[in-house]
Specification:
- The complex is a heterodimer.
- Chain A is an alpha/beta fold.
- Helices cover 30% and strands 16% of the residues of chain A.
- Chain A has eight helices and seven strands; from the N terminus they run βααβαβαβαβββααα.
- Helices cover 32% and strands 16% of the residues of chain B.
- In chain B, the strands form five sheets. Chain B has a five-stranded parallel sheet with strand order 5-4-3-6-7, sandwiched between helices. In chain B, strands 17-16-15-18-19 form a five-stranded parallel sheet. In chain B, strands 11-10-9-12 form a four-stranded parallel sheet.
- Chain B is globular and about 55 Å long.
- Chain B starts with 5 loop residues before the first helix and ends in a 12-residue tail after the last helix.
- By secondary structure, chain B is of the alpha/beta class.
- In chain B, a hairpin with a 7-residue loop joins β13 and β14.
- In chain B, α7 runs parallel beside α9, α13 crosses α15 and α13 packs parallel to α16.
- Classes of the chains: A alpha/beta, B alpha/beta.
- The interface between A and B is large, with 53 and 75 residues.
Chain lengths: 194, 468
Amino acid sequence: MEKTEIVRSRTVVMPGTDIDTDQIVPARFLTTTTRKGLGKALFADWRYDKDGKPKADFILNTPAAAGCKVLVAGNNFGCGSSREHAPWALIDFGIQAVISTGIADIFRSNSLKNGLVPVIVDQATHTWLLANPGVEVTIDVASCELRLPDGRSVAFPLDGFSKYCLLNGVDQLGYLLHQSDAITRFENERAWKP
Amino acid sequence: MSGRSLFQKVWDDHIVVPESADTPAVLYIDLHLTHEVTTPEAFNVLRSRGLPIRRPDLTIATLDHSTPTVPITSLKDLDVVSEPAAAAQIRTMIENCEKNGIRMYGYDSDSRGIVHVIGPELGATQPGKTIVCGDSHTSTHGAFGAIGFGIGTTEVGHVLATQCLLQRRPKTLAINVEGKLPRGVTAKDVILAIIGKIGVGGGTGSVIEYRGTTIRGLDMEQRMTICNMSIEAGARAGMIAPDDATIQYLNGRPLAPKGADWDAAVARWRALPSDADARFDREVSIDVSQLTPMVTFGTNPGMVVPVTDAVPVSDDASFRKALAYMKVEAGKPMLGMPVDVVFVGSCTNSRMSDLHDAASILRGRKVAKSVRMLVVPGSVQVQRQAEAEGLDKVFREAGAEWREAGCSMCLGMNGDIALPGQLCVSTSNRNFEGRQGIGARSVLASPLTAAASAIAGTIADPRPLLPN
């Protein structure tokens, strides 16, 4: 996992609520055995027509979306399936942070394990971001702040452990492996065995 | 201090290292269920880091998601019926399990099936366990009083390497369900009504405990249907306290404890239900005594109405987009809407009681000529039992296809799909855009409603067709 300290980018806005992981990556692309190259499957059913040509009116196909690293989405983004292919596809496409008023639990957990920053904001900030697509924002992981172009700074929740992992580019497996003695003790001492 | 909830008791029993302000808890996992789609990259990561599987005895594997539901007698058949990528994925899973000493219930097993159907069927799912799987419908196992939740592939790797996960304690949500279910109204209708009430994000950050007299009166298969769709309300997990029905269901199952171990386990399970003074972060109540069969009209499971109602009206942009995708009109009745495909199956509704329900409507009747109907058992065990009871004949004589066990048309990645524009009444769990095939329009319903709709060729109320 890459280190993520600052994400600075124009935003691309998808205002729809409850955008599910089946839209982010349709199931027919899940027959892969690797996490690589899923960017082309991102939002495939919204992005391409039936002949596989990009739809000109889909937001991610517009010139304004080129190079954007921050996706502003409607409430409850990433609901549905647990497929980690969803953050893999977003990252492969170039997205480094998702801003919404609500992000589904499993998607959020998967995102943090891959360096995709989930940014939960209040309704007023969200409404402003939806109404002002393409503004340049800065997401500062260390201070848990989203900075808007008018100078406003909005705090977002991120627990210390997740922050540490993002800032240092470390995944959680290393931490868990260090708990090996405690795990062995637990296995030996528990009252019943599964 | 107030008493502990079912969730709290199971959670406390699995804390290897408690959580702190800085670090999440290290939570021990008792049962890890795996399938072909969300595991290959986890095995890749372990291999590249030279890490062994810590407890291969606590992981079981099967083939269900990208697995075709046409008959397969040997792996060679896969190359004929499957896309090359799907065939390769299945082979990769089999190899990964062989190399790592993981029990695989594959093509040579009479216990293969949808991962959330075989866990309980084998008796691997038990009260008080922590159960995870790289699949969001792992919430199903909560029906036994286990904490069951879906995880991503990175976490699959964590469990393989350490048998643990890093978790923050979720909130608790009690859903009290009261009232006698009217005839023709099933567990599927109850959970659809609950999701309609609290919304698809209503359970986010929470573990639900379903309580009340209605829940106590449900059999284990119906309880699984309820818990299965907890994730469709955004919840981390859904649980139901174990009772006589739970214990009776598990007694004698292949992986259930035996002899003195069984007695000790039962004593432990009896102590799991929430204490009378347990507190929940939030409580919701629902009376189901007047409930009717429910159907979805939009593109998420919270967009749901009684089958006898009209499509609701709203100015919300996402709502209107959903109606446009579904080609349904606000204010128009759901009944009578033409149906192209009917799917009875999935981890929500593919067990014996679901097949009995569907068969009770189909017996002696014919599926409308305009409708393609698939009935897909959840496991080889269900398939065999249904065939022993002659249910396969009922389905075939009605004009439905009787298939091999698997996830099938729930998620359109194994060859079973609805075509663009087709309307599919489905007993599965998700009506997302394209879920059952590009452009396919899904209407979630109970097996009774699905079967009634197959006969009518339109969305139909099953109640007039119920046998006496």
